[in-house]
C-alpha cells in the first residue's frame, strides 16, 4: 500500500505542503488546493510553476482532488461548468503524470425530494467517458452526494455508469444516514463504514482515510479524530483490504485542525494545521504497520 495525503490541510502554501509531506517521510501529495483555488482553477502560468516546483522537490501526484460534481454543485447547475473543469483537468493530469481524478455525483437534494437520478447518471457517463478517452480514470467518492446516500446508491452508480471506479472514504459513512434502511418510524440509522466497504470494495481503486465520531444530527459536522480514535473502523477496513489484495494508494484527509469545506477554512491556527497533519500521517503509518 502506497501513502499520500491532502497536504492542503497542512497549508494552502505549496512550499509548506511539500515540507509537511517530507516531514512525514512521504513523497506524494493528493493535489487539491493551492492558495484559494483548486488545481484545475489556477491560471495556466501558476499551474506550470506548481508542477515545476513539485518536480524539483521530487513529489509525485497520484490523485487529483477535483471539484467535479462535488457536494457544492446541485444537479441542476450548468453542466458546461463541469465540462470546462474536465477540459482544464485533463492536460494538467497529464503534465503531473496523474492517473486518478476524484469526482462526485452532485449534491444531495433534501431526502424525499426528486433526486433527478437520470440526469446524474447521464452526466457521470459523460464525465467518465471524457477522462477514459484521455486514458485517465475517474473515481467517485462516497461523500455528501447522491452516491453517498448508501452503499446501494454507490453500487447503482457503478451499474449505470460503465467504467466508473470508486474512492472509498472511511470517515464519510460515520456522519451520513443509510437511506437504504428506513426504520419503522421513518428515521434512518447511521451508515456502517465496514458494511459500506464490504459492499463496494471490488470497485475501489483508491482509499481516503478520515476518522470521526457520529454527530448529534446529520446536519452538523462530526468530531474528527486522529486515525483509529473514531468510529470509522479503520483497522477492520484496512485488514480486509489487505486480505483481499488491495495494493493501491491510500490518502490521508484528516479534517482534524481544518475542514476543507468549512465556511471559513482560513480561520484556523496555521501552525496547528501543519503540525496536526504531520502527526496524523505518522500515526496512520503506525496504525497501518499493525495491520
TrEMBL record:
<dbReference type="Pfam" id="PF01261">
    <property type="entry name" value="AP_endonuc_2"/>
</dbReference>
<dbReference type="InterPro" id="IPR036237">
    <property type="entry name" value="Xyl_isomerase-like_sf"/>
</dbReference>
<dbReference type="InterPro" id="IPR013022">
    <property type="entry name" value="Xyl_isomerase-like_TIM-brl"/>
</dbReference>
<feature type="domain" description="Xylose isomerase-like TIM barrel">
    <location>
        <begin position="19"/>
        <end position="258"/>
    </location>
</feature>
<dbReference type="GO" id="GO:0016853">
    <property type="term" value="F:isomerase activity"/>
</dbReference>
<protein>
    <submittedName>
        <fullName>Sugar phosphate isomerase/epimerase family protein</fullName>
    </submittedName>
</protein>
<keyword id="KW-0413">Isomerase</keyword>
<dbReference type="InterPro" id="IPR050312">
    <property type="entry name" value="IolE/XylAMocC-like"/>
</dbReference>
